[in-house]
Design brief:
InterPro entries: GcvP, GDC-P_C, GDC-P_N, GDC_P, PyrdxlP-dep_Trfase, PyrdxlP-dep_Trfase_major, PyrdxlP-dep_Trfase_small. It catalyses: N(6)-[(R)-lipoyl]-L-lysyl-[glycine-cleavage complex H protein] + glycine + H(+) = N(6)-[(R)-S(8)-aminomethyldihydrolipoyl]-L-lysyl-[glycine-cleavage complex H protein] + CO2. This protein has 33 helices and 26 strands. It is an alpha/beta fold. The strands form 6 sheets. A 7-stranded mixed beta sheet has the order 2-8-7-6-5-3-4, with helices on both faces. Helix 8 packs across helix 19.
């Protein structure tokens, strides 16, 4: 037997990663290409993509590396970070993630590959986990309604400002911020306030609201509790004064402190905001972390972001769903309560489970330990002659050392500890869950004092004010008491995960959402301590590895998109949109064109586009969409002429929201530019462009990119996301910056969009690794296979369902839209019926009724292999045959498998009164009984849940009833 000689170099290269990432192999691609009518991927995309936008050159990226090589590179970057004991504070703290939560939530694809729970019947596990989160926030803040997480504390405070203006009695006046609020929160609020004409006043409110400010009118007040300096003050008098002025009061609160301190609700606050980071979520150089907002009952229906509520299913059983969706941006557009489209679900689940695992007693113990360390530290410093500025504090001290602050901080650094230099005289010191005796000794040494911990512990009294000590019960629901052992917690997490459908089970063919492989190699570095345990305000020289990774990712994303500069700060696509529009606004103002405030948006655009434009101080003018799904160019030109002198920007999604490559995009861009406007290319559909066309070169001035779509950051059940903004050179001076990290953006920038300098930096290694693993050619092939897969599905389904829109050559881009409306009209079978019936076949439904009501938008991505694509097509074809049975009368129009879908295992028991069989219900054609996914509930009554709003864990007797 002889073998062909293979060189060592070939053997060393191993299997290219793109073969792991791209589902269809060469043989499958050939079969799919033949079905679509092309001989190669290049031939297909040469026809599909208009010539006017095609890239002339290959992507100038480093060549692809193996998984082992990329992990080695990342280890090298991680080693360049210095992880010191962080005692900086300012909203970011060391925390210990219970390993059972780290392994079984954060590192578990059953949780991190799930999609936003818009199909609640197959999302009951993560919806229950989010209800736990909401319960924790609501009960600790003392306010009855909490949302399912916001992006971070800074943006939550900015949302509270907008909410205060929207629902408060005072419609003019200022937004008043206490000077002891977190500096990054103040900066985010100022960034968000300026475009909408809100005046922000920062003042010392320790002695109340100054008369000269009260006279101007105040619509909202923000207080920090405890303050950034560590001070714990009783805010009752200020809250009462604010209410007398008609203002809405927001308290930015520390949840761990609230286990010991009187809740904001009891103190009189209307809104509470903050972050749940210290509930078991690593600092990650700034994120991602789950922000929170809780409100008084009368504000519940104006709450921004997502809200999980309790409803019932078709059998009357309790079931969870997203409540009050009609207020959200995807429905209300420019009239939405906010532009937020991405929450922080994965991190909210972790924080909620941290509370479930520890329970109220465990949380109090952690808080008492943290406070005790701070008290002993303070007493030791006082004994050594150091002044502690505030007498009441929870975990943070401000020490006064005239002229010596820099020396003290340097001494602590030498001892492996980061402190915060406030100014030349003041040093901030924060204790947390990870603080130990060694840190106390190191801090004392840095200040030049010595302390005996045992003696100081015996002599140190409590420092929390007696009038603010909490005396009410919280977290009394059984879920916070019955999972104390790891065995119990492990099984609870497994039970919840088993209720859900995520990418680890099968295909999630959502159009415009790009649910693709999140490779394990990409995910692995996220939990390394050198990336996870770094404070975002640590000195830059301690983050060399991170900053190198960030710079390289920015440069590579610029290369991919054809732009000149990228900012990674925006921590969601919606925030990237806002950052891009603020850059456009600043550019026009710098040119003296302050009147340019009109934003043209096609009627089919994502709802975030319009909501973001309003937040950026722009007037939305809608442009019609033609019957072919493209922008109505006649209407566009008419709107350009009408608003020529006021035109600021056109926002356009490319490929279009209808899933086609518009051939007139370059002419559209040119027309806007000729009128003095800018072009914003929404990057939601970038998965159809990478390696084939570059928005920055075919007419775009600015784009946001969804790293949680095209660049493999997981959706995590509805977040985390990252939405970097990419711009051409003339807009680069107006990218986001940050007051605490000068390297985060240009000095002339618009201010911070997110609380952390580089947003959700902790998950950037995922996209860095993806680009490094694939290389330029691999990224291009991924795009080509995504386009191939979408066209393969379109061709297979076209004989059974109308495919609404086609581009050049009769082809779609990376997604296709099938029309169910004629079938609904003929048979009564609704788009909901089809979506829920797909669950019985073992699939998550495609995107429903967007951008056209009564349709399904399907995006297979490049990650699904041919077997899975065919399984989906077979299911859709089988459902078409079932619809035909309803249409012919073989099945009753009100009692058939589609109308009754999904079917649970419980539904099979007892009498069966339906005119179809149990087998037809749960084992339709093609479903393997041994691999069956069983939904835990039947179809959920959404209207019931909205009418009867319950958004925290209901008592057990509610389930019994």
């Amino acid at each position: 037997m002889t073998t062909n000689r293979i060189s060592l170099t070939e053997l060393e290269s191993g299997i290219p990663f793109e073969q792991r990432h791209i589902g269809p192999d060469d043989a499958a691609q050939a079969k799919m290409l033949a079905h679509v009518g092309f001989g190669s991927l290049d031939e297909l995309t040469a026809t599909a993509v208009p010539d006017v936008i095609k890239s002339a050159e290959a992507l100038g990226l480093p060549g692809a590396r193996t998984e082992a090589e990329v992990l080695q590179e990342l280890h090298g970057l991680a080693e360049r970070n210095q992880v010191l004991a962080s005692m900086i504070g300012l909203g970011y703290y060391g925390t210990f993630t219970p390993p059972v939560i780290l392994r079984n939530v954060m590192e578990n694809p059953a949780w991190y590959t799930a999609y936003t729970p818009y199909q609640p019947e197959i999302s009951q596990g993560r919806l229950e986990a989010l209800l736990n989160f909401q319960t924790v926030v609501a009960e600790l803040t003392g306010l009855p309604t909490s949302g399912a997480s916001l992006l971070d504390e800074g943006t939550a405070a900015a949302e509270a400002m907008a909410l205060s203006r929207r629902v408060g009695k005072v419609k003019q006046g200022v937004f008043l911020v206490d000077a002891d609020c977190l500096p990054q929160t103040i900066a985010v609020i100022e960034t968000r306030a300026e475009p909408t004409g809100v005046e922000v006043v920062v003042a010392d409110l320790s002695d109340g609201i100054p008369a000269e400010i009260a006279e101007r009118g105040v619509f909202g007040v923000l207080l920090q509790y405890p303050g950034a300096s560590g001070a714990v003050r009783d805010p009752r008098a200020v809250i009462e004064q604010a209410h007398e002025l008609g203002a809405v009061v927001t308290v930015a609160a520390d949840l761990l402190a609230l286990t010991l301190l009187t809740s904001p609700g009891e103190l009189g606050a209307d809104i509470a905001v903050g972050t749940t980071q210290r509930f078991g979520v690593p600092m990650g150089f700034g994120g991602p972390h789950a922000g929170f907002m809780a409100v008084r009952e009368q504000f519940a229906r104006s709450l921004p972001g997502r809200l999980v509520g309790v409803s019932v299913d078709a059998d009357g059983n309790k079931a969870y769903r997203l409540a009050l969706q009609t207020r959200e941006q995807h429905i209300r557009r420019e009239k939405a309560t906010s532009n937020i489209c991405t929450a922080q679900v994965l991190l909210a689940v972790m924080a909620g489970m941290y509370a479930v695992y520890h329970g109220p007693e465990g949380l109090r113990t952690i808080a008492r330990r943290t406070h005790r360390y701070a008290a002993i530290l303070a007493e030791g410093l006082r004994a050594g002659g150091v002044e502690i500025v505030h007498g009441a504090y929870f975990d943070t001290l401000t020490a006064r050392v005239p002229g010596r602050a820099g020396e003290v901080v340097a001494g602590a650094h030498a001892a492996g500890i980061n402190l915060r230099q406030v100014d030349e005289d003041l040093v901030g010191i924060a204790c947390d869950e990870t603080t130990g005796r060694a840190q106390l000794a190191g801090v004392w040494s840095a200040f030049g004092v010595q302390g005996d911990i045992e003696a100081l512990d015996a002599a140190t009294a409590e420092t929390l004010p007696g009038t603010l000590l909490r005396d009410d019960e919280y977290l009394s629901h059984p879920v916070f008491h019955q999972y104390r052992s790891e065995t119990a917690m492990l099984r609870y997490l497994r039970t919840l995960a088993d209720k859900d459908y995520a990418l680890d089970r099968g295909m999630i063919p959502l159009g415009s959402c790009t649910m693709k492989l999140n490779a394990t190699t990409e995910m692995e570095p996220v939990t390394w301590p050198a990336f996870g345990q770094l404070h975002p305000f640590a000195p830059a020289d301690q983050a060399e590895g991170y900053l190198t990774l960030i710079r390289e990712l920015e440069e590579r994303l610029a290369t991919v998109t054809g732009y000149d500069k990228v900012s990674l700060q925006p921590n969601a696509g919606s925030q990237g949109e806002l950052a891009g529009l603020l850059a456009v606004r600043a550019y026009h103002r710098a040119n003296g064109d302050e009147q340019r405030t009109v934003c043209l948006i096609p009627s089919s655009a994502h709802g975030t586009n319009a909501a973001s434009a309003v937040m950026a101080g722009m007037k939305v003018v809608v442009v019609k969409t033609g019957e072919d799904g493209e922008v109505d160019t006649d209407d566009l030109h008419a709107k350009i002429e009408k608003h020529r002198d006021e035109l600021a920007v056109l926002m356009v999604t490319y490929p279009s929201t209808h899933g086609v490559f518009e051939e007139h995009i370059t002419q559209i861009c040119a027309a806007v530019h000729e009128a003095g406007g800018q072009v914003y290319v929404d990057g939601a559909n970038l998965n159809a462009l990478v390696g084939l066309a570059e928005p920055g070169k075919f007419g775009g001035d600015v784009s946001h990119l969804n790293l949680h779509k095209t660049f493999c950051i997981p959706h995590g059940g509805g977040g985390p996301g990252v939405g970097p903004v990419a711009v051409r050179a003339h807009l680069a001076p107006y990218l986001p910056n940050h007051p605490l990290q000068p390297a985060a953006g240009p000095e002339t920038g618009v201010g911070p969009i997110s609380a952390a300098p580089w947003g959700s930096a902790g998950i950037l290694p995922i996209s860095w690794a993806y680009v490094r693993l694939m290389g330029g050619e691999g990224l291009k092939r991924a795009t080509q296979v995504a386009v191939l897969s979408a066209n393969y599905i379109a061709k297979r389904l076209e004989p059974h369902y109308p495919v609404l829109y086609n581009g050049p050559g009769g082809l779609v881009a990376h997604e296709c839209i099938i029309d169910v409306r004629p079938l609904t009209k003929a048979t009564g079978v609704s788009i909901d019926d089809v979506a829920k019936r797909l669950i019985d076949y073992g699939f998550h439904a495609p995107t429903m009724s967007f951008p056209v009501a009564g349709t399904l938008m399907i995006e297979p991505t490049e990650s699904e292999d041919l077997g899975e694509l065919d399984r989906f097509c077979d299911a859709m074809i089988a459902i078409r045959a079932e619809i035909e049975k309803v249409g012919t009368g073989e099945w009753d129009k009100d009692d058939n498998p589609l109308r009754n879908a999904p079917h649970t295992a419980a539904a099979l028991g007892g009498d069966w009164a339906h005119p179809y069989s149990r087998e037809e219900a749960v084992f339709p054609a093609g479903v393997n009984a041994a691999e069956k996914y069983w939904p835990p509930v039947r179809r959920i009554d959404g209207a019931f849940g909205d009418r009867n709003l319950v958004c925290s864990c209901p008592p057990l007797d509610a389930y019994d009833s």
